[in-house]
Amino acid sequence: MYVEERMYLLQPGKAPEYFKNYEAEGMAVQLKHLPHMVGYYVTEVGPQNLVIHLWAYDDLNQREKCRAAMQADPAWQAYLPKVRPLIVSQDTRILKCAPFFLDRLKKMLAAAK
């Protein structure tokens, strides 16, 4: 199992606008296409204006298919122009689940359904 960590550095003071747009439009599209939202966070201590969200996938092929379907969705295409101007930079990491944590992650994801 893999977890994708996506980090967006926002323009100072733009987090409320970003979250408003995401909650109103972006989240529904992502939840429609991506299998497991592990978390959605904003930094409290450390680099400011940083939004971090985590998505779990069974494998990298599933990730590729899910993200391609989301990118092709007209609702996602309509959402992107609303948030892109708020983003300064983006960083993405793919994390492979440690063997001893795999069962715990699966239980967490099952409980969230």
Provide a descriptive summary of the structure in words.
With 113 residues, the chain is of the alpha+beta class. It has a single domain (2-111), classed as 2-Layer Sandwich (Alpha-Beta Plaits). It is built from four helices and four strands. It has helices spanning 15-33, 60-72, 74-83, 102-111; strands spanning 2-10, 36-42, 50-57, 87-96. The protein has a four-stranded antiparallel sheet. The model has no long low-confidence stretch (mean pLDDT 94).
Characteristics of this structure?
113 residues; alpha+beta; Alpha-Beta Plaits; four-stranded antiparallel beta sheet; 4 strands; 30% strand
What is the CATH C-level name?
A: Alpha Beta
Beta-strand content estimate: 25-35%
The strand count comes to: 4
Radius of gyration: 15 Å
SSE series: EHEEHHEH
The main β sheet shows up as:
4 strands, antiparallel
The appropriate CATH architecture is: 2-Layer Sandwich
Total count of helical runs of at least 4 residues: 4
Task: Briefly characterize the structure.
By secondary structure, the protein is an alpha+beta fold. The protein contains 4 helices and 4 strands.
Secondary structure layout:
Blueprint: E1 2-10, H1 15-33, E2 36-42, E3 50-57, H2 60-72, H3 74-83, E4 87-96, H4 102-111
Antiparallel strand pairs: 1-3, 1-4, 2-3
